[in-house]
Amino acid sequence: MGRGRQKAKATKVARKLKYFSPETDYAALERELATASSAASPDVESDDDMYEELAAKYAVDDDWDDEDA
């Protein structure tokens, strides 16, 4: 295809996308969002709690600088 035809086709597609407004199913969106928010259970530990566990597990004194002196 030549550049003129290619540009015309791209313009046609862009215009079609610009003015295309699909029907939005707000009920389905609400169900999906409600399911996603209820999937996070309150029993899940926070990031801070998990970090504290790992920090305690791998706690090492960083006094190696003093040993080299």
From TrEMBL:
Q: Superkingdom of this entry's organism?
A: Bacteria
A Pfam family that the UniProt record links to this protein: DUF3073
Q: Which InterPro entries match?
A: DUF3073 (IPR021426)
Q: Please give the name of this protein.
A: DUF3073 domain-containing protein
